[in-house]
Amino acid sequence: MPIPLEYTRRTLDEIRAGSPEHVEQLFADLRADFDAASSTVDSADAWKSFRDAWIGRKSGVLSAISDNWLKPAPPELKRVVGAALNQLRAHVEAVIEARRLEVEVSADQAAAVREHVDLSLPGVARSLGTRHLIRQTMDDFERIFLSLGYSVATGPEIETPYYNFEALNIPETHPARDTMDTFYLDLPPGALTQYLLRTHTSPVQVHTMESHPPPVRVIVPGKVYRRDNPDSTHSYMFHQVEGLAVDTDITFCEFKGTIEYFIREFFGPKVKTRFRPSYFPFTEPSAEVDASCIFCDGAGCRICKFSGWIEMFGSGMVDPAVYGFVNYDAKKLCGFAFGLGVDRFAMLKYGISDLQLLFQNDVRFLRQFP
Amino acid sequence: MKVLFHWLQEFVAVTASPQDVRSRLSLAGIAIDSLEESPAGPVLDADLTTNRGDCMSHYGIARELSALYRLPLKSIAPVILSEAKDPVSSVTRVEIECPDLCGRYTARVLRGVKVGPSPDWLKQRLEALGQPSINNVVDATNCVMLELGQPLHAFDLDTLAEKRIVVRRARPGEKITTLDNVERKLSKDMCMIADAARSVAVGGVMGGGESEISFFTTNVLLESAWFEPTSLRRTSKALGLRTEASTRYERGVDPEIADLASRRCCELILQLAGGELLGGVVDIYPAKAAPKKIEITRKELLRVMGSDVPDRDIEAILSALGFAPRRSDATPGAAGSLMAAWECTRPAWRRDVSREIDLIEEIARHHGFDKFPARMHPARQAAARLPLADAEDRLRERLVALGYQEIVSITLVDPTRDALFRAEGAAPAKLTNPLAEDASVLRSSGIVTMLQALEWNTNRGQRNLRLFEIGRAYTLRDGKPVETRILTLGAAGLAREKSIHEPAREFSFADLKGDLDCLGQLVGCFRWESGVPAWLHPAHSARLSLNGVILSEAKDLSSCAHGVAGQLTRRIAEKFKLRQDVFVAELPFDPLCAALEAARAKIRYAPIPRFPAVERDFSLVLADGVTFAQVSEKIRALAIPEIISIEPGDLFRGGAIPTGKYSLLVRVVFQSHDATLTEAQLTDFSARIISSLEKSLAAALRTA
Q: What is the pLDDT of residues A237-290, one digit of tens each?
């Protein structure tokens, strides 16, 4: 912007402005010039020069007026010049500030166009891992049961027949042993103890009661093994969470309440629970727990075989015979136990049809459960 | 077990629909898996629990229905059409030499029967229940078994030597060819039905071919017996032979029903095949026992079930099931009394019931589990997680944040593969009875399963992998199994994939080291040392220790029992068909968790300095073999408290650097808690560092 208004570099005397009217006319002209110049400001750079030209401390028009007109003004004009200058300054400053905002907005708009980014492009990727679905499910179980006051216990996967069978009221001759096909460990000749891969997490019930006086509330997550040929519902190895509660005031009603609470917490408040009498050597009465089908809300579908119910797990009141193996007083104590199939729960919750998927560790499967 | 709906109705006049019967039975513990139509009417398929041998018949299930619907159960009263005057004892004799295996043996003889095909109604029934029709006599025995649960066997009397029966143990080396035409070796624990000369049947399991009923048979000896379930189960298992008869016997047949079932079968044979029945029965019954009495009290019912059942329901259920309850408390007239007690007489068909709790279960399942209200009980103790669970969570969280996917492997593996990573001298935990050779040993380390997971994924086009597993490794020590928790890492392919923002980068040993050091921050830092098992690349691998302590107490046992990390050798990688560079690490997990907790307990806040930090770079030329750690140690040895970090900035060989030497840029950061450092101080620090490195490590300062 050209430095305007050369006459502001001279004194009033020099430009022969001796009357207040003349002074006011000078200011009115200045204001008109300013307004005209302000309308041409269209960029940040132009705005800066414009600002410096008018209110720059050293060479700005207003400083020049102050130096050249006001300071040397004769006393009779000083008031007029002062008042007019203040008026002009207020106007100038307000307009410059307003123009600044306008220029910034239009600069931002220009930048937005110029630096436009395709928002559909990805950001810088960070590859994150995942917890395995079995782990996630076990963590869910643990959280629910911790909230009910259940501690977590653990035990060996390689067990003795005593803990896996006898102490759970399954003597060697019991037909129930046929339903749990068992892997046995090959031991050096002369070994005294026989070992097997536990077929359920229930042996930890016995370990727990052997080492803790009642009352007891535990869950036992872990791996279990069955000698079944692998297919979409069978595997050499799978996961269980055993539960056990023993106290002087636990009855079948508390058993039902606890299981119902668990099912609702895991599957959601709409899911109903049903208890069907069953048989396990270490519980009496025994119950199969069914949940209303989560796929059809109990209306009947292919997955629940049109029954509206899905069999979830076995459970029941601890058989008094089991207390005999751990020196608990069967006359005073009562309790319940259950064995949750972790893999089965995960499969049902996420609609997985093949158990093998859980153990193949295909990353395309693992990534689906962040 | 399959049952016909109309056959059930012959014993109990149920008017409810088959669907209703199905659901009522299922909710009383007789799970009905399916309900299908057949030419003989609706068929219910019951998936019976192993304790309910009494329900392996129509009559048994009808009894459950009579209790459920509170309807009377019809009794069985055979009408014998034609009975001869000659007593059966004049024709045959029975001897039981092994009363421990055979508790009852009844024999009847029918004369002049005409063996032929069965009538259609019978064929239809048998076929609907999956039982092939053989001939009218055999079909009659099967029909009664299905009806009453008593297995029966018909012999051609004229083929029996001396026409008599000896029940005895198998003789040494004895063999028999059973009805299915298989010659079977016998052992002395097996109960055989023999005639005067040889065995003619495996007791309770299957008959022999030579004495079977044929179309030429006219005289029939009908066996109705009771065999001891445990020994019978062993026999059936040893022979690999499960039959309709053996499944019933091993679950427990009612010994009392043998004679009634025999008469019912004779009634049927006479109807179907004519002939006449000889008078009376030969009945040897060494196992006859007095009925067992069991008492049930309301107090115990309440203690276990938590909610009451009215007197009349208790009595109706127990009566219908055959327990003949009788009030036995002091005030039997008081209905609903808390002191009420009933003395029950166990029927012979319910050998699974022997205690009060068993009766409680009978009442509960017939009353309906749904009638007991659901309640919660307050906890008396605080709940505790496993001792190292929080530490485990932190380590897992960090691994996930570092981009590692958690895997869960089947721990049964191939012994040859497992041996690759097993330390010499460590004994593997092998299975006696594996189902497959490649799953016949429990893994001795997590490396084998980790490589299998990498193999699985690379074979399926998934090449950029970072995996971890927290699991157990299994070995035998002095013949005893040892389970050790381990953390295993595996990585291959790209550390970073190419994107519009960044170029691709291969995963390298430095990535593995960096990732492990991120875990190290949680556990109080790893020390990296050389010396690794032969399956790791000697230059790109290390042994890890923690606070200067090797991670395991048993470093000699397993190559993975202390921490190791590095690149797999080509030779091993190829065995898993892994063609890209593969990196693995394995650490014993419990010491890691313990170290994390200890490190966490020691954390204290350190004040943030208020004065600026100053960096000084030292461009050193060092002889090959001098390590960064040595440089860093020498600088630290000067004990300049203002030094807050020593980091390598750049490293290169070649160019102006003579062979045998390399250039290392070391960046040292100085900072004081008390004042801004002056130029004079910094010059002094630098001079001391240079002089020390020159003297002790023969380092030369490189001039740009």
A: 999 999 999 999 999 999 999 999 999 999 999 999 999 999 999 999 999 999
pLDDT of A4: 56
| Contacts B27 to A, Cβ<8 Å | 274, 276-277
ipTM score here?
0.89
> Tokens 């292919």, residue?
A302
Question: Taking the mean position of all CA atoms in its chain, how far away is CA B422?
Answer: 27
Q: Which residues of A touch B460 (CB under 8 A)?
A: 362, 364
The total number of structural domains in chain B stands at: 5
Q: Please state the rounded mean pLDDT for residues B250-269.
A: 95
Lowest mean pLDDT among A131-140, A178-187, B543-552, B678-687: B543-552
Rounded Cα distance between A197 and B613, Å, is 60
Same domain, B595 and B628: no
pLDDT at B559 over 70: no
Q: Is A363 on the interface with B (CB under 8 A)?
A: yes
* Domain CATH code at residue B16: 3.30.56.10
How far, in Å, are A94, A171, A267, A303, B116 from residue A299 at the CA level?
A: 73, 42, 17, 11, 51
Does B542 share its domain with B405?
yes
Per-residue confidence (pLDDT) for residue A179, from 0 to 100: 66
**What's B110's domain CATH number?**
3.50.40.10
Instruction: Provide CB contacts within 8 A for A75, sequence distance 6+.
Output: none
A residues 207..266 contacting B (CB < 8 A): 215, 217, 223, 225, 227, 229, 235-237, 245, 247, 249-254, 256-258, 260-261
Query: What residues have CB less than 8 Å from B464, skipping those under 6 apart?
Result: B492, B493, B494, B497, B507
Domain that holds residue B47: 2-69
- Chain B closest CA to A185's CA: distance in Å? 4
Instruction: Find out whether A144 and A266 touch, Cβ atoms under 8 Å.
Output: yes
- Residue that finishes a domain, picked among B256, B284, B312: B284
Q: Assign residue B603 a region: left if phi > 0, alpha if psi is -120 to 50, beta otherwise?
A: beta
- Which homologous superfamily does the CATH classification assign to the domain defined by A133-366? Bira Bifunctional Protein; Domain 2 (3.30.930.10)
Q: What is the pLDDT of residue B50?
A: 87
Whether the bond between B87 and the residue before it is cis, its omega within 30 degrees of 0, is no
For the segment A292-307, what is each residue's pLDDT rounded down to a tens digit?
998 898 888 888 888 8
CB contact under 8 A, A276 and B27: yes
User: Would you place residue B704 in the very low, low, confident or very high pLDDT band (cuts 50, 70, 90)?
Assistant: low
Given B284, B316, B332, the domain boundary residue is B284
Handedness of CA B362, B363, B366, B369 (dihedral sign): negative
Residues B312 and B335 in one domain: yes
CB contact under 8 A, B434 and A183: yes
Closest by CA position to B28, among listed A339, A179, A275: A275
Question: Which residue type is seen at A234?
Answer: H
CATH of the domain at B695: 3.30.70.380
Q: A294: buried, middle or exposed (CB in 10 Å: 19+, 13-18, 0-12)? A: middle
The most distant pair of C-alpha atoms in chain A lies apart, rounded to whole Å, by 131
How many Å apart are CA B40 and CA A49, to the nearest integer? 106
β partners of residue B475: B428, B482
Give contacts of B369 with chain A, Cβ < 8 Å: 252, 256, 275-277, 285, 287
- Asked if pLDDT for residue B37 goes beyond 90, the answer is yes
What percentage of chain B has pLDDT greater than the value 90?
Answer: 85
Q: Does residue B213 sit in helix, strand or coil?
A: coil
Mean pLDDT of chain A: 91
Residues B540 and B636 in one domain: no
Mean pLDDT of chain B: 93
**Could you tell me the pLDDT band of residue B165, with boundaries at 50, 70 and 90?**
very high
Residues A110 and B688: their CA atoms lie apart, in Å, by 57
